[in-house]
Amino acid sequence: METTTPSPRVDELPAELESAQSKLVYLYVRATDGATATDLQQALGLRKLAILSVVGSLSSRGLIEETEAGYVAAAATTDPITA
Asked: In this structure, is residue 70 part of a structural domain?
């Protein structure tokens, strides 16, 4: 019998996320504890220009932060249980 590891769970999305693309990008970054633009492009099947537009918007809203390694969920949006 194969056991599975539960996936990280994000219970609530910030109310300011309106587009499907912004929700996908935000959820992916949260669930994977960070991602590069290339990671997002490959995993979500979105064009890089769309990814860069979305991460710019999420960053300006304080929902994600850009680091040297890629994009991560902003400290204020991390799960308080695991933070």
From this structure: yes
